[in-house]
Amino acid sequence: MKLAQRMGRLGTETAFEVLARARALEAKGKTVIHLEIGEPDFDTPAHVIEAGTTALRSGYTHYSPSPGIGELRESIARFAGRKRGLTFSPEQVVVTPGGKPIMFFVILALAEEGDEVIYPNPGFPIYESMISFVGATPVPIPLREENAFRLDVDELARKITPRTRLVIINSPQNPTGSVLERSDVAGIAELAVRHDLVVLSDEIYSEILYDGEHVSIAQFPGMAERTIILDGFSKTYAMTGWRLGYGIMPLELAPHITRLVTNSVSCTATFVQRAGIAALEGPMDDVQGMVEEFRRRRQVIVDGLNAIPRLRCTMPRGAFYAFPYVGNVGMDCRAFADYLLNDAGVATLAGTSFGAFGEGYLRLSYANSVANLQMALDRIEHAVQKLR
Ligand SMILES: Cc1ncc(COP(=O)(O)O)c(C=O)c1O
Question: How far is the centre of ligand 1, averaged over its atoms, from the C-alpha of 286 (Å)?
Fold first, then answer.
């Protein structure tokens, strides 16, 4: 079948491919420790499951308005506003099946051929994929270990041209776990205002932060009218499979993103939206417990990686990923990730799955038990020793 040309520009997310390869190995009897998947290994909080099932039984099984049910949009506006010290109206909120469609729709709505979009590299692979897909030019901004994997604002300034339309930022960041400082965000905001740019701020990991504060670019002068916040329930409430996320955007953009929802998925599952209200309005104990457990595991994995000769790992400040440097093992990071999967039974992702500037690194998700993390570390150490 002849595909449309644009399909040649569409990328993918390697995590799903590595998961499939790991499952194939497991089907052959091999044990694999899964450090490739970007999802909390915790259960969705019980009160959220209860709200979802109650909603199903109560008839929330029909279409909802495309931008989401009013009560959920109100809860999101209130909760997200309180968290960031801002006031949002429910009309600024568009609910989607996961946060990912916000990326898809915002890039589709704002960028076109001839436009340049600046995005973090290494970064979530769908940014680059979507920018290319819509025919715009992806302009990577490298995140370097020597700058704690934060983007360098002076370098960003040099990347901006008259064709720059959109800047994508992500803090806490996937895959490096870096967190932008207030001064970084202030600098990015200042550039956005000066050059009349729109910012897509992916804040999906904002609750999974181990030290410091979450700073949203929407808080800075002149940014309310040019920021789209992407957030959702997948990571914070361990709800990846429910598919529930949202964008908070300038009022004038919301009807256009809503049209994209109408044209694609119509709406987000209605009973899932009811569960989302319970997540926002209910107790946060489970979320806090999950973050504390991630903090403990972060220490285990980072200490363990640093104890392995030839590897080193900086301490991530947010999300649940470690991003160790593996450039001294004698092969590129993709070959090393393949070697770890096939020979050691540890599934990880090559840094280059997140863009060219990820060469030399691996992404390890520590959304796994301490016992499994320790076993994975032993296996990795043994595998590295065998390379001598
Ligand atoms: C940086 C980042 N943004 C957005 C998402 C999208 O998550 P979801 O569509 O499950 O809400 C992910 C998921 O891995 C992510 O890592």
Answer: 20
Confidence check: pLDDT of 320 > 80: yes
CATH class of 5-44+285-386: alpha beta
Q: What is the mean pLDDT of residues 325-343?
A: 96
Pocket lining: 245 vs ligand 1, CB cutoff 6 Å: yes
User: Any alpha helices (H) in the chain, and if so which ranges?
Assistant: 14-27, 46-57, 70-84, 100-110, 125-133, 153-159, 182-194, 254-264, 270-281, 285-306, 333-339, 370-386
Q: Pick from 102, 124, 206, 237 the residue to mutate for probing ligand 1's pocket: most ligand atoms within 8 Å of its CB.
A: 124
pTM equals 0.97
| CATH number for the domain running over 48-281 | 3.40.640.10
Give residue limits of the domains in the chain: 5-44+285-386, 48-281
Residue 98 Cα, ligand 1 centroid: separation in angstroms? 7
What does the pLDDT read at residue 5? 94
Q: How far is the CA of 122 from the centre of ligand 1 (A)?
A: 15
**What is d(CA 334, CA 275) in angstroms, rounded to the nearest whole number?**
39
170 lines ligand 1 (CB under 6 A): yes
